[in-house]
Amino acid sequence: MADEHDVAHPTPAQYVKIAIGLAVLTAIEVGLFYLNDAVQLGWINTAALLTLAFLKFAIVVGWYMHIRYEKAAVSRFFTFGFALAFSLYAVVLISFGVLAANR
Amino acid sequence: MTAAAHEAQSPHQDLHESTGVENRKLAMWAFLSSEFLFFGALITNYLLYSGRDFATGPKPSEIYDIPFTSVSSFVLLMSSLTMVLAHNALSRGDQGATRTWLLATAMLGSVFLAGQVFEFTEFITLENMTLATNPSASAFYVLTGFHGTHVAIGVIMLLSLFGLSKRMGGLTNRQFLNLELVGLYWHFVDIIWIVIFTVVYLLTAVPGAS
């Protein structure tokens, strides 16, 4: 991972472009929700919405929180916490049969 | 040796010995990392109850106002932009722009909170869904209320920074880290909402309910 001072941070114009990208992804999410209302997309809708949410999450963490420009220790801390929480609650949800319910 | 002179001679005194990251910054990242477990528990709790049927009252997933929540989500997303612009302005030494973007972020956060108050009021008064209506409603209010509390704390920190900058005529190099830490916290609140909006609202909303 590069040192924070080695790589130039985005410019204000680039931050605005990133925000436009995030807004477009949100619009696609909402559009998918209504499309699924009209035509039942099933697991495709779930997978697409989760993928879009993860994309937005990664963009904010990477560019707005500057984790791309931080030292490795920082990203390790953050990634470990996220992975731990995700794994733990995925196991809980699976063990309670939530993922197998009618969704 | 005075504290100021000592600080001038030891600019890296706050750096963690082995990581090279300021202690307070590392602590903030560790704190945010631990918050995943907190929010994860509340989201999981909601998901466990959202698929069940209850004898009393409506479930949140039956009464969501998706267009309204979509606008709220957009507002919070844009507050991340204004926050990063405040950070960028201070790194360029533009104190006026820093204050403007800090205030804009606090205002967008306040708009989001007002939206949440409106949503809760509608659910309680029009839909008769209170905290005690059923376990799904309880899980929803606790999760979104807990997130809203985080937003409120963030707004207070942003306004404190704004007030400090206004009173002192600008933020110093030392206070730059404070702004960075508040920024990290604010973006974290945003990414948690990204997950809540998708998982709690879009994925569990009953078709045709909105």
Give the low-pLDDT segments of chain B: 1-13
Largest sheet of chain B: none
Query: What global shape of chain B is seen?
Result: elongated
Largest sheet of chain A: none
Distance between the termini of chain B: 66 Å
Strand content of chain B: under 5%
Structural class determined from secondary elements of chain B? mainly alpha
Strand segment count of chain A: 0
Q: Output the radius of gyration of chain A.
A: 17 Å
Describe this protein's structure.
The complex is a heterodimer of chains A (103) and B (210). Chain A has 103 residues and is mainly α. Chain A is 71% helix and 0% strand. Chain A is built from three helices and no strands. In chain A, helix 1 packs antiparallel against helix 2. The model of chain A has no long low-confidence stretch (mean pLDDT 86). In chain B, helix 2 (23-50) runs parallel beside helix 7 and helix 6 packs antiparallel against helix 7 (173-202). Chain B contains seven helices and no strands. By secondary structure, chain B is mainly alpha-helical. In chain B, 76% of the residues lie in helices and 0% in strands. The radius of gyration of chain B is 20 Å and the shape is elongated. Mean pLDDT of chain B is 89; it is low at 1-13. Chain B starts with a helix and ends in an 8-residue tail after the last helix. The interface between A and B is large, with 51 and 53 residues.
